[in-house]
Amino acid sequence: MRVLILGIDGYIGHSLALHLLKKGYKVGGIDDFSRRRRVTEVGSNSLTPIASEVDRDNLLGTFNDFLGRTRLYLPGKLEAVKTILRHYEPDTIVHLAEMPSAPWSMMDALHSFITQSENIVGTLSLLWAMKEVCPTVHLIKLGTMGEYGTPELDIPEGMIDGCLISKDYGPCPLDRLPFPRSAGSFYHLSKVHDTHNIIFACKIWGLCSTDIMQGVVFGLNEYSSPEEITRFDYDEYFGTVVNRFCVQSLIGHPLTIYGAGGQTRGYLPLKDSLQCLTIAIDNPPSPGEYRTLNQFESTYSVNSLAKLVTECALDLGLKVDSGPIDNPRVEAEKHYYNPVHQKLFKLGYVPTTDIKGEITKLIGQLDAFKSRIRPNVILPKTKWR
Amino acid sequence: MRVLILGIDGYIGHSLALHLLKKGYKVGGIDDFSRRRRVTEVGSNSLTPIASEVDRDNLLGTFNDFLGRTRLYLPGKLEAVKTILRHYEPDTIVHLAEMPSAPWSMMDALHSFITQSENIVGTLSLLWAMKEVCPTVHLIKLGTMGEYGTPELDIPEGMIDGCLISKDYGPCPLDRLPFPRSAGSFYHLSKVHDTHNIIFACKIWGLCSTDIMQGVVFGLNEYSSPEEITRFDYDEYFGTVVNRFCVQSLIGHPLTIYGAGGQTRGYLPLKDSLQCLTIAIDNPPSPGEYRTLNQFESTYSVNSLAKLVTECALDLGLKVDSGPIDNPRVEAEKHYYNPVHQKLFKLGYVPTTDIKGEITKLIGQLDAFKSRIRPNVILPKTKWR
After folding, report:
1. What ipTM was assigned to the predicted interfaces of this complex?
2. Between B116, B167, B204, which is nearest A384 by CB?
3. pTM of the prediction?
4. CATH classification code of A2-220+267-297+338-352
5. What's the pLDDT at A377?
């Protein structure tokens, strides 16, 4: 099985590449290293000291030259993308090459333009290249549970599979329409736009795609040498909430709960994300099929996560306060949340249920890098309004 | 009432400007004249000889210098857009400044990139400028009925206002979620993306917007001098179906019915579009409200339109054949179609119901420009697959 990872230098991309290589898959990838640049630009760093671009190439040992630095989203790069597909001949493409931060996309107009145009044109470029070079290859696209928002009703896996009762018309069967999306940032909206574009490409060109609505990932990858460790962001832009809380606990910073803390989302450890992506790789959809997987272990509110991190930190002898702060986002701070997530379980996903154990382990791992923490990147500066 | 029209040089933009000026509104506008350029690039022309850019400025007499040629979609132009809003102080903004052609967007990868990035970034730019300069101004955005696709169930006006019965969960109220979109081209998808972005901007910034899902427009504007006439496209890219059929009937070209001809859409004459837009201008939504209007007079299949045009042309002594051709698009050629369109009627829209009279009048008007028809732009060259 030959897997092409777009965004192979990232948090998940690097971890997935090593995970697959160790399992005997052939792995190639591209990256424009924009994540490294953007984290530097916001004044932060990866908490883990990651290998240089060149050392990562050597470590993976799978890059050809032309599989190196390619900017997927530049229209002029379409021919380069087609050349990569033609020469690498992947069975599966895992598309992680997008700008992944909600606050970054909300910083100002320019950041929203870059987020949406890069993510949309990058994905369109990939779709056109696949159509012309390898229309039967399985495309795995990383979306986000955030596409659905918090609609105050049960969230299915992608499509509505039910019946609509409207005041005007009575019951109408819903013919595999996408569940309405209510995303909460220009970044999350860019993923919604991708979803609509991919559904259309599958319909008209017969491409086959797994669109993964992933929950919030936390933790580190398994590493047997320092070069294998993945990047770990903890700033307001590129850090996700559990990772940020764990770092805050290490330096005695009050956990930054935004607003009332009732915001509930699906979460999963990084190793589960790798497990699920591998399941998706091993179990492609039918030719021409567009399939959605809701990928997370369980749902937690921000308050319950803060409580878990606090308990784990206390067990490790750390003293932690929680510090509710004005919510920089516009979002429901208390809401109903019940998304379906059955398909991955049916395909064999065995979730890590010991979330406290995972958090305790993570804080322990991060302690080695404590001196690298930059406290000034912790508090949120970007506001939605 | 001060109205700012973005895309004031276009088919609807020019007509709306004159219509409003004659009714006593103040009108300003911007345009980058890309429609003129793109029609030339595909080898076609406006069937009507339209005034030069300079003459149109003089005719309208409302442009300031900086209200001239501005490319809304260039990130670097955000400050220019804000300056225009600050100096012009509109009460209403009518946003028509988008690439409007489905086949053009499907020509190749590059055309899909341009369509989506220009339309999305242009609208985002406007939203950010409004947020910063004039957040209470009424934004009227031209969307398309094509956003909904043909979902085989009744289509409401924008939001779902009903109850979802799903197999897994039983009944759930739908809390004003957008009706799922199933657009049929990268152009139509760009409008879907706009819709999602605008809903979000209204939610987080309190902007107020009317999002118009317009049917297919046909016909000419009322003109009292040659300079007042609007452009009229009849090529495969920028011509709409009734306009194309009328031109074909004038030169004895078989009417180009794509596939089985059962494709059904909402239609309205240009003068009704102007009437409806004026109603929307005069009746803004509440502050912070996002409102959808489905704007069309009635639904027709392509076959029934071909029949109507044939009958009208025969009455005028023209001989017309219909020539079914392979459908270049991927679309249902026979389907259920029943969209709601109540809100504009409730606001006072009196539709033109004599569609045959309109078509007969149009063919008569176009006869004066018959010698300008370029027959080689009629048959479709762009295929969806």
Report:
1. 0.95
2. B204
3. 0.96
4. 3.40.50.720
5. 97
